[in-house]
Amino acid sequence: MDAAMEDAAAAQPEREWDGGGGGADAVLGLAGAGASLSLCYHEAFGPHDELILLEAADDLLPDLLQGRVTVRGRPEEEAVLCTPSATYAMKFVGNSNSVFLIPPGESAAPTSRPNGTDGDDNVASATDAVGSIIKVASGNIELVRTAPRLDKLRKLLNERPYVLDEDLGSDVQHQKGLYTWQDLCELVQASDGELSEQLSSISAVEINGFWRMVDDSSANTILDMILHNSVLHDWSLNSVPEDDVLDVMESDGFMRKIVTHYLNRFGTKVEKEARGCWSLDERRVCLQFARRALGAGKMKLENFMDKWERSIPSGMRADLQMLEGEVLCEKLGTETWVHTFSVADLPLAPAERFAALFRERPKWEWKDLQPYIRDLRLPGVSSEGLLIKYTRRTQPSADAEPIFTAR
């Protein structure tokens, strides 16, 4: 905005604006070389901080125009815009030129012209004014597809994990550290679809209107009871009858919803002889027992394998390949040791993920690294692109395993 415009704007007190009175249709109707019209300040010209230009791709317009978007973020966070299924970073981009905002509707009575050219008193007549400027925009917001910011979700739900036989009470004090779906939507910067997917990924369950993680001890107890009842009632682990196991465990004091949640976590529902049954997944069940075996810390590989194999259900087979992304092996002299290092406990943002990985190990072979980065998602960036950005690759020979270090 030049000096004349600034002086004119300063001279006009901001008035109440009804949303129209700009004559924008006339501006949009300009056609042909040399076409022109007069522009004047709207009588309600001012900063109007509530008006911000938003640049959006065509595929976003249906969600924007039908009110299916929300802006999410706390005051201390950078805001994001969420559609039902995607998250977009909001970046303000300044304009080098003056951008006039002209509202729709019939042009209101003008005040001064922005160029300050015609007339000694710098006032336009109502007959030659077509467009009325309500605001000069200094820039606009651009939307850039970004990964949802989901790291906060696990932290929130881990404030108050569900334990068996807990008594929440009904007053607000007893509900501290518990979050409803609406609470999570307000606190976590992710679309509804991405948030729902992550809740499923981390095995959260909705109990009495609150989304909860289940503590490890309770999870182990529930799995043990499912397996115990399968032996007691001679149920095949590939065909556990849903109604029967729910009835039996409910009689033992377990909530049906929690039991169903863990049947889903450790198995797959199948239809057998017109009955709903659950087939327990060997890898998921064995993985839970491996975590339990390593609960005390680092172990020699042979001791761990012996303890693990003795703990798993009869008929299941323990295999180290089941533990990709869950445990790490390291050579110490002539012995191999294993310890827990779960991808589920690592940050979801790529920069923080790679930083955590290289704190654990300064050098990674691809076979060890791949399970810890294959879940990373950054719109517009491939896995190879992430490796180039965050790692250095060395390969002593064509036949050697590539080694990755921090960039």
From TrEMBL:
<dbReference type="GO" id="GO:0000775">
    <property type="term" value="C:chromosome, centromeric region"/>
</dbReference>
<dbReference type="GO" id="GO:0000785">
    <property type="term" value="C:chromatin"/>
</dbReference>
<dbReference type="GO" id="GO:0006260">
    <property type="term" value="P:DNA replication"/>
</dbReference>
<dbReference type="GO" id="GO:0034088">
    <property type="term" value="P:maintenance of mitotic sister chromatid cohesion"/>
</dbReference>
<keyword id="KW-0235">DNA replication</keyword>
<comment type="similarity">
    <text>Belongs to the DCC1 family.</text>
</comment>
<dbReference type="Pfam" id="PF09724">
    <property type="entry name" value="Dcc1"/>
</dbReference>
<feature type="compositionally biased region" description="Low complexity">
    <location>
        <begin position="1"/>
        <end position="11"/>
    </location>
</feature>
<feature type="region of interest" description="Disordered">
    <location>
        <begin position="1"/>
        <end position="20"/>
    </location>
</feature>
<dbReference type="InterPro" id="IPR019128">
    <property type="entry name" value="Dcc1"/>
</dbReference>
<dbReference type="GO" id="GO:0031390">
    <property type="term" value="C:Ctf18 RFC-like complex"/>
</dbReference>
<protein>
    <recommendedName>
        <fullName>Sister chromatid cohesion protein DCC1</fullName>
    </recommendedName>
</protein>
